[in-house]
Amino acid sequence: MKDAFGAPQSLLVLGGTSEIGLATARRLIACRTRTVWLAGRPSPALESAAAELRGRGAYVRTVDFDALDTQSHETTLGKIFTEGDIDMVLLAFGIPGDQERDEEEPLSAVRVAQTNYTGAVSAGLVCAGALQAQGHGSLVVLSSVAGERARRADFIYGSSKAGLDAFAQGLGDALHGTGVHVMVVRPGLVRPAGTARSGAAAGTDTRAGTDTRAGTAAVAPLATIPFTRAPLVTTPEAVAAAIVTGLRRRSETVWVPGALRAVMSALRHVPRPLFRRLPV
Amino acid sequence: MSVDTVSLTGWGRTAPTTALRFRPRSYEEAAATVRGCGPRGSIARGLGRSHGDAAQNAGGSVLDMTRLNRIRAFDAGSGVVVCEAGVSLHRLMEVLLPLGWFVPVTPGSRYITVGGAIGSDVHGHNHRAAGSFSRHVTEFELLTADGEVRAVRPGTPLFDATAGGMGLTGVILSATLRFHPVKTSLMSVDTERATDLDDLLARLTAGGRRHRYESARVDLTSRGRATGRAVLTRGEHASLDTLPAHARRAPLSYFRPTQLPAAHSLVPDLVPGGLLGRTSAAALAELRYRRAPRSRTGELQRLSAFLHPLDAVPHWNRIHGHGGFVHYEFAVGHGQEETLHRIVRQISQRRCPSFLAVLRRFGASDPGLLSFPVPGWALALDLPASLPGLGRFLDGLDEEVAAAGGRVCLTNDSRLRPDVLAAMYPRLSEFRALRAELDPNGAFRSDLSRRLSL
Question: Could you confirm whether the keyword Oxidoreductase appears in this record (chain A) (predicted)?
Answer without folding.
Answer: yes
